[in-house]
Specification:
alpha/beta, Rossmann fold, eight-stranded mixed beta sheet
């Protein structure tokens, strides 16, 4: 299914009925990462999976896709489905979008799960790295996608999940360079939502990989505790939906 935001198509799926749960993928991913989760979860509730702008079947509409833009695109999907309240779970960039959605639409989210994500803004060092990544995307998309994906798992899991990572890379290579660039630039300038997350009164969960190469585990744990969120530790890297699928599925089942 598709709807439109700023004249660009936004692709999504919806399965099941009642108590909606929105699942948002991360950078260089698509809604397909949730495929192994939706059949089971949708047996008890409505599960909506969305391709964020510039990813999967969703189009581009700006040089920079801000987290606000992405949140508004998600709202367009909820409007299409006539959903007034929902719970959200977002992987990595999907977590950033979920937090911005809460910032713009504070009465909609019931529960919020950050998977391999953080409410903190980028550090100055991380912003510099984002700029380097954006430059590489425009020069050599294939090299960037291959490098970026391989760095997300532990070395052992890169071998164990070699075929699955290959699928993720091939999907990402279908994205336009402009769409990847727009997301990188949008993540770079995102707002720090630590205070917002701390004040959120609904159920909130932070899922972190002990060997996440993208986000510092100890810092995520400290942030979760300070924000009074339930902290769930997993023993692998940044792709918990792949590396720790069974454990993550169990966590998602406990979302109100």
């Amino acid at each position: 299914m598709t709807t439109n935001y700023k004249n660009a198509p936004i692709s999504f799926t919806s399965q099941g009925n009642g108590n909606p749960l929105v699942l948002l993928h991360g950078f260089l991913e698509t809604k397909e990462i949730w495929k192994d989760f939706t059949a089971e979860l949708s047996a008890k509730r409505q599960v909506i999976c969305i391709d964020l702008p510039g990813h999967g079947g969703s189009g581009n509409f700006a040089e920079i896709h801000t987290m606000s833009d992405m949140a508004e695109a998600v709202k367009a999907v909820l409007n299409e489905l006539d959903i007034a309240k929902a719970s959200f779970a977002g992987h990595s960039m999907g977590g950033y979008v979920s937090l911005e959605f809460q910032n713009i639409f504070p009465t909609i989210i019931n529960s919020l799960v950050l998977v391999n994500s953080t409410p903190r803004a980028d550090s100055e060092e991380r912003r510099v790295n984002r700029d380097r990544a954006a430059t590489l995307v425009l020069k050599n998309k294939r090299a960037f996608v291959s490098m970026a994906m391989s760095n997300l798992l532990t070395p052992e899991n890169n071998k164990i999940f070699k075929s699955q990572v290959g699928v993720l890379k091939n999907r990402a290579l279908q994205f336009s360079s402009a769409g990847i660039y727009a997301a990188i630039k949008g993540m770079k300038i995102r707002t720090d939502h630590t205070e917002l997350f701390a004040k959120f009164n609904g159920q909130k969960i932070v899922v972190a990989g002990e060997y996440d190469s993208v986000l510092e585990y100890d810092r995520i744990k400290t942030t979760a505790i300070r924000c009074k969120a339930t902290f769930c530790s997993l023993p692998d890297g940044h792709l918990s939906f792949l590396e720790n699928q069974t454990e993550l599925r169990g966590i998602l089942h406990f979302i109100d």
